[in-house]
Amino acid sequence: MSNKTQNQKIIFGLKVRQLRTEQNLSFAQLAKQSGVSISYLNEIEKGKKYPRTDKIELLAKALNVDVQHLTSTVLTKKLAPVGVLLQSNFLNELPLDLFGIELSKITEIIANAPIRVGAFISTLVEISRSYALLDAHFFSGAMRAYQEMRYNYFEEIEKKVDDFSKKNKLPSEGGIDEAALIYILQKRYRYTIIEDGMKDYPELENIRSVFIPKEKKFLLNKNLNPIERTFQFAKELGFIILKLKQRANTSTLFRADSFDFVLNHYKAFYFAASVIIPREALLKDLSSFFKKEKWDAEALLQIKEKYNASPEIFYHRLTSLLPEFFGLQKLFSLRTIHDTEKNIFDLDKELHLNHKHHPHGNGLLEHYCRRWLSTSLLNDMNEMQQVGKYVGTFVGIQRSKYYGTEDEYLVFTLARPAYPQPHLNTSVTIGILIDEEMKEKISFLDDPTINKKIVNKTCERCPIEDCAERVTPAIEIEKKEKRKAIQNALKNLTGES
User: Fold this and answer.
1) Beta bridge partners of 398
2) Which residue in 5, 140, 467, 493 has a CA-CA distance of 20 to 30 Å to 163?
3) Domains in the chain: how many in total?
C-alpha cells in the first residue's frame, strides 16, 4: 500500500485513533486484539504508514467495524474540520521543508487533537478568505519568513555570482554596464531583446519586462531608465545561471502557482542584486562609511551611485551584508509607496531581522505615522515636485524612538520617483536598533546634526498630543478608553474586583 497518498494515510490513521479512543482501548490492548505491533500502530495513527490488506482486516475486526468503513475517506462529524483542511491542500502548499519541519510532525499534532487543530486551521483559512489574502500573499509571507530565518543572506547564491562574474570578466568594484549583460544574453544564450516590447500592448505599460520562452524573446518597457534595464537583464541571467525553471515570464509576479515560484523569483532577484553590487566591494565601502565621525549624506549617495543601483537594490544588499559581516542583526527594512494623486501611503514591503520591530505593515487601512522618515521624506519630495523643482534621489537619516518604549533606531531612508509610473514616489528605509554592539560599529551615531523623533505606528493608535504631523484623530485610542470606562463602570456596579 505504499502508493497511498499522504492525505489517505492521515485519514486512515485518524479513523483508527478515533475508534480506538472511543472504545477506550490502549495501544497495547488494540495490538493484542489485532496482532499488529504497538510501534506499527503508532506509525499508522501518525499518518506515516498505511497497512496491507490483511492488517486492515485484522484492525477492522478488532475495532468492530467493516473494512469499507475503515478505508473510506469519508470522515465523521468530529473529524470533518480535518477533512476540509486536507481537501483544501493547505498542508501540501506549506513550504515545510525549508523550515526543517516534517509533514509527519504536523500530522502528529493533528492526530493528538484533530477537532481543535482542524477548527483552528479552518478558521485561519476563513480569515484569509475574508481579508482576500490570495495564494501570492501567503507565499510571499512564507518567503519573508524564510529570508528572516536566514538573515537574508544566501552564501550559495553569492558563490554562483562570484563564479559568473569572474567567468564573464565583470568589474569587481561595481559599475557594471548593461551592454555586458546584453552581450551575454544575446551571444551565449541566444536571446532576442526587443527594446520597445510593450508598444503594441497598452495594457502592459507598467510592466518592466516580459520573457517569451519559445522564441527566447525578452521584451523591455521603453520607459525604463538604464539602472532598471540593467537589473532586468541581470535578473533574467539569474534564472538561467541558477537553473530556475518554475517562474513567471513577467518582471512582476502577478500569481504564484506554488511557493517555488516565489522562491525562484527571489533567488533571481538576489542574484541580480549581487551581480550589480559585488559583495567585497560594498563591504569595503561600508567599512569606510561607518568609520566617519560625522553623518555624510552625500557619501552614502555616492556609494549607491557608484554601483549604478536603484535604492531598492542598494538597500537589499545592505540587509544581506550588515547582519552577516557587521553583526548588525537587529534591523528592519521597509518600502513605502506614495500615490501623489490620491495622497495615499502604502507600506508594501518589509523585512524584520532578529525579531519583529515596531514599524510594520497592517491590513487596517490606517494612516502610518508621518514622523517616520520613510513618509516624511516622501512628503518633502512631493512638495518639491508640486512647485516644479527637479527631484532625483533624496537621502535622510533620523534617530527614531518608538513611543512608550526604550527602543530607538538609527534610520536611513532613500526616496525617489517611481518608474515607470509618474504619479508614484517610493522610499526605502533601513532601521538599525541602537544597542551597545551597534554603537561600536557606527561612529557617527551621536552626530548632533542627526534629527531625533518620537514615532509611533499609526495616527489612529497614537496618544501623542499636539502632533503637528497628525493627519487623523486617534480614534482607536478613543475606542479603547471608552471600553475601559465601560469595564470600570461595570466593576463598580457589580462589586467585582
Assistant:
1) 411, 451
2) 140
3) 3
Where does a domain end: 246, 276, 306? 276
Residue pointed to by grid coordinates 500592448: 201
CATH of the domain at 128: 1.10.260.40
Q: Per DSSP, which regions of 340-417 are E strands?
A: 344-352, 394-402, 408-417
- Edge-first strand order for the sheet with 331-339 is 344-352, 331-339, 424-433, 408-417, 394-402, 451-455
Q: Which three cell numbers stand for residue 422?
A: 509618474
Residue 284 domain-assigned? Answer: no
What's the pLDDT at 492? Answer: 87
Say yes or no: 310 and 452 in one domain.
Answer: yes
Distance CA 17, CA 63 (A): 10
What is the predicted pLDDT for the residue at 77? 67
**Are the C-beta atoms of residues 237 and 281 closer than 8 Å to each other?**
no
Question: Which of 378, 400, 414 minimizes the C-alpha distance to 303?
Answer: 414
Question: Looking at residue 1, what is its pLDDT?
Answer: 44
CATH of the domain at 247: 1.10.10.2910
User: What is the DSSP secondary-structure string of 120-141?
Assistant: HHHHHHHHHHHTT--HHHHHHH
Final residue belonging to a domain, choices 109, 133, 157: 133
Is residue 282 situated within a structural domain? no
The pLDDT value given to residue 120: 67
The CA angle 384-386-391, to the nearest 5 degrees, is 40
State the pLDDT at residue 132: 47
Mean model confidence pLDDT for the chain: 87
pLDDT at 290: 97
Judge if 303 and 451 occupy the same domain. Answer: yes
C-beta of residue 75 within 8 angstroms of C-beta of residue 11: yes
Q: Are residues 404 and 471 in the same domain?
A: yes
How far apart (Å, rounded) are the C-alpha atoms in residues 296 and 303?
A: 11
* pLDDT on residue 232: 96
What local confidence, expressed as pLDDT, does residue 251 receive? 87
Q: How many residues does the chain have?
A: 497
3-state secondary structure of 193: strand
Cell 551581480, residue? 275
Residue 189 pLDDT: 96
Name the DSSP letter for residue 332.
Answer: E
Residues 191 and 105 placed together within one structural domain of the fold: no
Q: What are phi and psi of 265, to 5 degrees?
A: -65, -35
Of all residues in the chain, what percent are helix, strand and coil, respectively (each to 5)?
50, 15, 35
| Parent domain of 429 | 292-480
pTM metric for this prediction: 0.77
- Look up residue 176 and give its three cell numbers: 557594471
Distances (CA, A) of 75 to 9, 84, 275, 322, 367: 13, 10, 53, 52, 47
Question: Do the Cβ atoms of 322 and 328 come closer than 8 Å?
Answer: yes
CA atoms within 13 A on the CB side of 226: 9
Q: Which ranges of the chain have pLDDT less than 50?
A: 1, 131-132
Among 369, 337, 375, 334, which Cα is nearest to 457's? 369
